[in-house]
Amino acid sequence: MNEQAVEQGITLMQAWQYGGDLMWVLLGMSVIALALVMYILVAHRRGAIAPAALLSDVLNALHGDNASEAKRLCERSGSALADVALAGVLAVTMPGATLERVNAAVETAGAHAAGRMSATVEYLLDIATIAPLVGLLGTVLGMFKAFSGVANDIASAKPVVLAQGVSQAIITTVFGLLISIPVLAAYAFFRRRVARRTDELENAAAEIVDAMVSKGR
Q1: For residues 83 and 78, what is the distance between their CA atoms, to the nearest angstrom?
Q2: Which of 32, 50, 170, 184 has its CB 3.0 to 4.6 Å from that of 128, i.e. a possible disulfide?
Q3: Is the pTM for the entire model greater than 0.70?
């Protein structure tokens, strides 16, 4: 690369080549992050976590004193609400069931469901934290190579050679930040949405427990 090329900048392909093998690591992290975002968008929908139709059907079954139908509805659904409701139905049908035991079963199932949602979102935070560190590692390695080249041939070394080496080293940090910033923004968005889904799940669970109590269970 000559001085004129440096002034004009570099292409994406050149930047990729200068970044070295760590660019493949960053690419893999970006693909994983994108896949996680797409999965969370689908899996954490209100209809997937606490579907209103299921809640209505379960409440109707409980108001009709039909715990077996409520159990069947929950077993057919794969939602978090189904797991919470099923825990309550199983607890209430056990011999010697009390309100405290039913509440404990529902709360435990709800905590597990909320934990699963939070754990999935936390992967985004991991990627957002690790990506710039991988970029920083590339910067350190690149600067080491640049200064090593100057040290080995200091008599013929030109300032532009050192500048090129440093600029190549910074590329990995730039790409690391380009991954980290949007992923961190996605994490903040989904973390708040998990909080909303958890509240919705708790409200639905409270309605189910109230339906059980209202029938004298």
Answers
A1: 8
A2: 184
A3: yes
Other beta carbons less than 10 A from residue 179's beta carbon: 23
Tokens of 67: 């715990």
**pLDDT tens for residues 88-125?**
888 877 776 677 888 888 888 989 999 999 999 999 99
